[in-house]
User: Fold these one by one.
Assistant:
Number 1:
Amino acid sequence: MASEIFLYWGSGSGPCWRVMLALEEKGLSGYGNKLISFDKTEHKSEEILKLNPRGQVPTFKHGNIVINESMAAIVYLEDTFKGQGTELIPSEPTKKALVLQRTMESNNLAEKTGKLLYYFFRNKDNIDEAVVSPLKADLKDEVLIWEGYLKELGGDSFIAGKDFTLADCCLFPAVAMLVRQGVDLDKSAPNLGKYYKTVKDRPSAQASWPPHFKESPNQDRFKDVM
Amino acid sequence: MASEIFLYWGSGSGPCWRVMLALEEKGLSGYGNKLISFDKTEHKSEEILKLNPRGQVPTFKHGNIVINESMAAIVYLEDTFKGQGTELIPSEPTKKALVLQRTMESNNLAEKTGKLLYYFFRNKDNIDEAVVSPLKADLKDEVLIWEGYLKELGGDSFIAGKDFTLADCCLFPAVAMLVRQGVDLDKSAPNLGKYYKTVKDRPSAQASWPPHFKESPNQDRFKDVM
């Protein structure tokens, strides 16, 4: 089944990582894939554009089916491979509702992380504190919302309770980016720090860890966010 | 069943309208609801905040289950009321994939419409063409992507084929906002113009039409977008 799947992905892209986590959790290791270089703008190559007119990754194929929105791909994967691997969307209504809510809500953390990061990428040596401060404050508030959710769960390991779900496929890449950019979660958001370590150690996270996170040291762009 | 459902909503909010369309299509007319006023910042009221800490609408309840992300609420509704009303996510894999793809992808149109609109709201009499022009160009490109999808379908009525689906619950509110803001779709994107008229006439759209769209004339903020 994994042989019918092909994924174009970029290292460190949150949306790509969501799909990669879901693939591993569904027992689909060994899927076909191609790492594209953002630096070489390979996401705008002919090869990608013919499958994904927006020229973005993830670009995901299952047989002749193409899905390019990460949220769509992971819902599709869970639905199509329901009986195998980790159950990413539970069937019990209350649990299902919470998983769907946190899955979609995680876009808030991804967006606020992305906004700040893109500002740093675009403005490198010319950082305007008047622009950056409100972005940092927004991100801090957002991080504390997720810290609060975990605290409320009172010791459960994952963001929608005691089991790993679709919501973790989406939340974890954004949390890992915080750490990558120098947020000390253990100090500023200890429940999130514990969460990070728990998910980081899962085989799915290890198998899909962004290569450039391993090859270069963590950054300090977010060091004073929290 | 509709009696167990309650929705807080705002007139003209795309995310609210998605949920309202899905509720009507699933045969859940008559659900409990409260129209909140954005002008009076009622979305930040105690009543909403205790259910939705982000202070946003939609705020959706089904019994004791609360879901506040529109995409999560509509996936939950389809799954929970699978056997009744319109089938919003088909089970055939190719069709399902396209519906999920277009559902999530519709966020692009919603975001580009929203960005331009918020700029106009915030800057009323002080519009900077240097800011507004690229936002308009982005929106135009986006509208043409959706026009292209409909053209490719070659006469099908809805955005994922011949049947109304979840993707239409999400796309239609953004298309209706274009018309509301003065885009002449018949002239600039005729397939989208036809789509608008088809969905507009559905009982679900009529039942959920934003009251202030009916009570005040269309605007011309987007008149030169296309």
Note: Chain A has a mean pLDDT of 96.
Number 2:
Amino acid sequence: MRLGIDIGGTKTDAVALDETGRLAQRIRLATGFGSAAVVETAVSAVSRLGELTGLAASGFESIGIGIPGLVDSTSGHVAHAVNLGLDRLELGGELAGRLGVGVRIENDVKAAALGAWHLMGLTGTLAYLNLGTGLAAGLVVDGRVWRGSRGIAGEIGHIPVDPNGALCACGQRGCLETVASGSGIARQWRTDDPLPVRALFAAAADGDEEARAIKARLAAGIASAVRVLVLTVDVETVVIGGGLSHLGDRLLCDVHEVLASWAQASPFLASLALPDRVRLVPEGSLAAAIGAALVGEN
Amino acid sequence: MRLGIDIGGTKTDAVALDETGRLAQRIRLATGFGSAAVVETAVSAVSRLGELTGLAASGFESIGIGIPGLVDSTSGHVAHAVNLGLDRLELGGELAGRLGVGVRIENDVKAAALGAWHLMGLTGTLAYLNLGTGLAAGLVVDGRVWRGSRGIAGEIGHIPVDPNGALCACGQRGCLETVASGSGIARQWRTDDPLPVRALFAAAADGDEEARAIKARLAAGIASAVRVLVLTVDVETVVIGGGLSHLGDRLLCDVHEVLASWAQASPFLASLALPDRVRLVPEGSLAAAIGAALVGEN
């Protein structure tokens, strides 16, 4: 049995996978804030899944953790996980000390990419395009996470595509993330609604011109991200995940429409069959937790 | 002994590499125009190197060919090699028939990428950024050509980076190729000089404002290509090759200057150490022919 934990900004999902890779148990906890509380959350998750499966921590074949921020998967070091209140944490070492077994730490988007690859039964190369507060992709090649030479493969949110675009938090202008992410939408569409993206889509459906323009830029930005991923890595599949993926087919149809209009203008783009390559991650699929359970293998 | 042939638009380079991968023999021929003449050129190259090495075609450990256009390296089929007067050619099959041995066919940029990786003694992941009439990259991962799922990995020339940029031959607007390639410069800088890029650099050195602006867009376009390659594949090294690479340090310094100015504005970009990753292919290094000799191994 493999154990995987996805530590998110507010909630933590944890799963136990049986020998065939199927979901055997799942639990959800609130995520603590700050280094000590995050470690405690992970320990609680192991303990709770231990009770449900009857296994001690050492009884699991592997334990893996997906967590936001800059992760060194070799050392288990985590940095800049702002939403968790972490600046620097030796998460791998701390957990090994508490649990008495080795724990594999992975960036949450990379873990989700691996999870999506397995649970969607994909073959070939995958980019998991995570549309959350930011925009980043996790790459899977031959069933393994592809990290690149310095661990930043897939950081496409900071590829600029418009010299006259908005200033990005990274210091550049017109990055993909400024139009195709939760933070990009929040900057453009001011609202008191606790779900600003849904509010934007509702306003656009009601005919609000500004909302329609922002929504169109979102779709074009996602389509641009797909194009970048195909023209560089030539991934067979782009799976859209992250918070914005909960918009479901409303989002996917917008993206398909942009890609189809591009194909009309460019026989070259048409030959790439971009619309065929884009899919949504299944709703509620726990891709990051499942991927975290599997990174132990890598 | 391995034999590699680089079939270019006007000339064909061919090399024989010894068992240790060192250059044993090299020849240069004029390239014939059209399917029959291209096949004849390759056969002549094998025959001439056979005389110099004392080996029959079947005596070489492998024979590989690098050629422009869309290449199916499995079938040996070549399409759309416009400069060679080829629309479609079963080059692998034709040559096997003429030579009595199997021949591996590879796209010339991909072959050059592999050749550069070997002759420059690189480790890790490489992008060979070919700046010729067009712009494309060849990727090498773990010492092997990375083709992607459908053979179009590295076709970054058609990533648009400016919605208000020039219309590209591919039907899109503002592609990297419209500013950072020989054709992009020829469109912007009209001249009767047989070497338009050198004429552009000379005019820029003389203070011509338009020439300076075109040269600046060239450097920014190359820098953008480097950024795209690092933020997607996270290549350790970007080697600049192709016709424009003959500009040498004049070009490399311009690119470094752009990357340094970006790093000033963006701590994120600064952390990527982009200037350290960019190098020029050694002048006259026959990277494509050497790579063609090595694709036989892949």
Note: The first strand of chain A starts at residue 2 and ends at 7.
